[in-house]
Amino acid sequence: MLVRFLLLLISTSSFTQNKSPYQVFDKNGKKSSYEKILKAAEKSELVLFGEHHDNSIVHWLQLELTKDLSEKKSLILGAEMIEADNQKQLNQYLNDEIDQKKFDTTARLWNNYKTDYKPLVDFAKAKKFPFIATNIPRRYASIVFKKDFDGLNDLSDEERSWIAPLPIPFDINLPGYQKMLEMMGGHAGEKMPKAQAIKDATMAHFIVQNLKNGTVFVHYNGTYHSDFFEGINWYVDQYRKNTKIVTIATVEQKELTKLEQEHYNKADFILVIDEDVTKTY
Question: For residue 22, which of 276, 280, 279 has the smallest C-alpha distance?
């Protein structure tokens, strides 16, 4: 009897100490799993993997999902974190025409590139997968914020090749843009949502341009660019109807056992990460 009690005590103690840094839920708040994400991704044409830019767990999971998916399908990778006018330098790095030092000095890479995105680019390089720089050059998004969409009319043909075709579709009534207006308190008018929209549209444009039959395009972006099936997701649908998309959103919570109500329907899969997880910057 004493032995059984001790075994139970040890088992209970082990269970309570079995911490996990994340939990997957589906859009209805039901617990799901990494394995289900992988299966869904395998059947898709496009995976929009929404991240918190500074979260170490989400960057690890992005790499793991990419590696595991590559064993089943041919991939094309792409990211918000590299801007379209740096595609030439990115291709040179992927093709071993320049080294990392040269890439660092010729492309506008984020400060956390080496820790968070270089592993993805290097994986594409090793596997000879294309890697697409999808984001609009930030100076053009800034033009939209200052001068509205009309401010882009003076761009050269080369500059226009780095953004979505103009004029872009735009719906100010989308909930995400309405929420942005509320957060701004009306001070910036529609400029902030429009600056966001030109980013979303450009990323969607370059994704659609590079979709290929029999491959899965895995795209890494800030989760707000695809949350609630808006943003990039909405624009992909404008440019290419009925694309098979799987969306992943990232949220941080204190408790992992239950998805908070505000995050329901945020994506096909919601990745809930312990709010105490180490940040990369």
Answer: 276
Tabulate helix, strand, coil % of the chain (nearest 5): 50, 20, 35
DSSP state at residue 31: B
- pLDDT of 19 reads 79
Tens-digit pLDDT profile for residues 83-109: 999 999 999 999 999 999 999 999 999
| For residue 8, pLDDT beyond 50 | no
Closest CA to 249 of 58, 47, 49: 49
Q: Could you read off the pLDDT of 121-156 as tens digits, one per residue?
A: 999 999 999 999 999 999 999 999 999 999 999 999
Compute φ and ψ for 125, nearest 5 degrees. Answer: -65, -45
**Please, where are the H alpha helices in the chain?**
2-16, 34-42, 56-70, 87-94, 100-106, 118-127, 138-147, 157-160, 175-184, 191-210, 232-239
- CA 136 to CA 1: how far, in whole Å? 69
- The answer to whether residue 29 scores a pLDDT higher than 70 is yes
Distance in angstroms (rounded) separating the CA atoms of residues 138 and 152: 13
- In this model, does residue 223 exceed pLDDT 80? yes
CB 74 within 8 A of CB 214: yes
pTM: 0.92
Query: Which of 161, 229, 231, 159 shows the shortest CA–CA distance to 195?
Result: 231
Measure the CA–CA gap between 202 and 39, rounded to whole angstroms. Answer: 28
**Contact predicate 118/195, CB 8 Å:** no
Amino acid residing at 14: S
